[in-house]
Write a structure and sequence with these properties.
The protein is 36% helix and 29% strand. It is α/β, with parallel strands linked by helices. Helix 1 (15-26) packs parallel to helix 8 (299-320), helix 8 (299-320) packs antiparallel against helix 10 and helix 11 crosses helix 12 (376-387). Bound molecules: adenosine-5-diphosphoribose and P-hydroxybenzoic acid.
């Protein structure tokens, strides 16, 4: 048995847990991260790849921007393809901001490297992680490491353990209200050794279903197709994937680059919010508290927004015994989270084929797209949300 103390016990080494650990370290607040998976697994987990303007700024300001600026790409706009017509949305012209194309697993790699270089502690392959006594004010986390039972005493527990983690489950039953929307489709995603066929992303609304052209580097394409939520990969040999992508993304002057597909998977899609996000000294952040469908790439960005708020609240408490930020954490986070939920749901609703749509619904979807893509006010709405709502405005008291 090993027993130790830290100030903040963080469960989960995804973007939320690692970024919180990094921010706390920069404020001189001792913390330990406990992660169920091995380091290699966490560093290679394939997720989305768009960072909001302020999230990219935050990485730079906290010493994590070098590789992103050297190897990632700045995107000043994006494209929407509707009925074979391409509409360009110029973020820079509309709202004076851009986004960064930089994969989530690269952010995670840089965060882990920074934490370890600074002497931070991340316990990978922590087993049977459980939280105790967080309502009473002297929280304890128990776990096993290499067969040894460990006890970590702390002042605050941050539940950054993703949608399937244990922290949300630890709330007494009936205390959490869940808001949920499961979509009747998923995305089949591939990574391929193919130079991106466009400089910026293309979100396509096609009569046979949504498609998305994205990228990871000058030689790697990331592409998605709308499919059934439980689609069998066996039904999608590589030739079929390329044929379908070429059809859904096709437009004048475009030709799809193809190459070896080295990763293929299906992701189901849902919107989900759990309220409240705190109980006593246990605070949830990121996917542990909310999920968005990937249309608009808000998952990582909203996880970072939560921990920016949690870090501020913890810092004010530790430095000045000011517990307003902690007490109001749920309320402050949820204001922004529901905006992100709205945007992701709206993008998803606008861009996908819904089999149950009545002819009226289908016409409404077309009318909405026409308005958004051609009216300056519509384009502005899209751009403002895509580059990201302010991180801090929502957290002022
Ligand atoms: N004990 C310790 N760690 C755990 C446990 C547990 N019981 N359960 C889960 N974890 C770990 C997972 O292995 C994972 O590494 O918690 C981490 C949670 O990380 P993410 O799922 O990446 O969640 P988050 O940090 O909130 O980031 C949100 O990830 O799911 C994507 O699209 C989403 O981009 C968004 C981002
Ligand atoms: C991705 O590159 O994986 C990506 C980009 C934009 C999205 C979703 C995913 O909206």
């Amino acid at each position: 048995m090993s027993t130790r103390k830290t100030r903040i016990g963080i469960i989960g080494a995804g973007p939320a847990g690692l970024m919180l650990s990094h921010l706390l370290h920069l404020s001189g607040i001792d913390n330990v991260v406990l992660e169920a998976r091995p380091r290699e697994y966490v560093e290679n987990r394939i997720r989305a790849g768009i960072l909001e303007y302020e999230v990219a700024q935050l990485l730079r300001e906290t010493g994590l921007g070098a590789r992103m600026d050297a190897e990632g790409a700045r995107h000043d706009g994006t494209n929407f393809l509707v009925d074979g017509v391409l509409h360009h949305i110029d973020f820079q012209a509309l709202v004076g901001k851009h986004v960064m194309l930089w994969s989530q697993h690269e952010v995670v790699r840089d965060l882990i490297a920074a934490r370890l270089a600074a002497g931070g502690e991340i316990v990978f392959e922590a087993g049977d992680v459980a939280v105790h006594d967080y309502e009473a004010g002297s929280p304890l986390i128990t776990y096993t490491k290499d067969g040894v039972e460990c006890r970590l005493h702390c002042e605050i527990i941050a539940g950054c353990d993703g949608f399937h983690g244990i922290c949300r489950q630890a709330f007494p039953s009936g205390m959490i209200v869940e808001y949920d929307r499961v979509y009747p489709f998923g995305w089949l995603g591939i990574l391929a050794e193919a130079a991106p066929s466009a400089d910026e992303l293309i979100y396509a609304n096609h009569k046979d279903g949504f498609a998305l052209l994205s990228m990871r580097s000058p030689s790697i394409s990331r592409l998605y197709l709308q499919c059934a939520p439980d689609e069998a990969l066996a039904a999608w040999p590589d030739e079929r994937v390329w044929e379908e992508l070429a059809r859904r993304l096709g437009h004048e002057g475009f030709s799809l680059n193809t190459g070896r597909i080295f990763q293929k998977s299906v992701t189901a899609m849902r919107s989900y919010v759990a309220e409240p996000m705190q109980l006593g000294r246990l605070f949830l952040a990121g996917d542990a508290a909310h999920i968005v469908p990937p249309t608009g790439a808000k998952g990582l960005n909203s996880a970072i927004a939560d921990v920016v708020s949690l870090h501020r609240a913890i810092d004010a408490y530790m430095r000045h015994q000011d517990d307003r930020g902690l007490n109001e954490y749920t309320q402050r986070c949820l204001k922004r989270i529901w905006q992100i939920e709205r945007f992701s749901w709206w993008m998803t609703s606008m861009m996908h084929k819904f089999d149950h749509h009545a002819p009226f619904d289908a016409r409404m979807q077309t009318a909405e797209l026409n308005y958004i893509l051609t009216s300056p006010a519509g384009q502005m709405t899209l751009a403002e949300n895509y580059v990201g709502l302010p991180l801090h405005e929502y957290h002022r008291s």
